[in-house]
Sequence to fold (257 residues):
Amino acid sequence: MLIKTAIQLLCSLVFVFGQTLASAETDLLNLATYAEGTRVPYGENMVVVQDEKTGEKWLKAAKGTSGRMNFPVNLPSDSFEITFEIHGYWRAKGWTMFLIADEMQFKFGMNGDAYTWIEDSLKKVSVWQENAKNSARFVVKAGIAKVYVNDVFVQKITVDKDKQGLTYTNLRIININEHYIVHSLKIKGGSDVPAPSGTTTPANGDCMATYTVEGKIHIPCLSVSNALGGTNVYDIQMQQQAGKMSFDVDMSSIKPR
Fold:
């Protein structure tokens, strides 16, 4: 009973903890929560498709339409990262992304013709894979915007001074035609933008709690009062709920130290 009570208290505290980690990485599509054939609430003409064999889900524009997506965000213009995976055929043109702060817009994107752009800078991507899944990472830090495709650096620009020191509150994507398959879209804000490889350095210390970008929290040392007036120490793991800043305890993971 004491263990359960301690874990319930921990869960309530972890919600606050999760809010501070939201800038680590947020999955905007949250496809796990939508059934096949669903038209997602953040999109226009965007439908969830699921592979019958693998169970993988992605988004496509409904046939004969042009899709759009719109997300509220809270990204500091001086330090953020946006990553996405798309499968674009050669006719998959026109995809454009905007970050918006009041009347200010920051434009970037990647299309099926193997081009990336940041603002007015257009660059062809040598590592683009035709008719296959490609990943792009746009990183802005200290006034410099860079783009990587399939973990290879492509180009960089200096961000205009009038677009620094802002907070972007909206991410908008337009002109998504039916030749695109959108697999993922994630954002990361704050000063802790990782290296282009996407790796992070784990915390040190035998009893240091850790959080991974997959939404898992490992707490190696949880002290719980026992019925004899002493304390027992447990090792537990928690998993973030899809699309929420709250966590579930993996009861099977609880073990004494």
In short: The two ends are 18 Å apart (CA to CA). The longest strand covers residues 67-76.
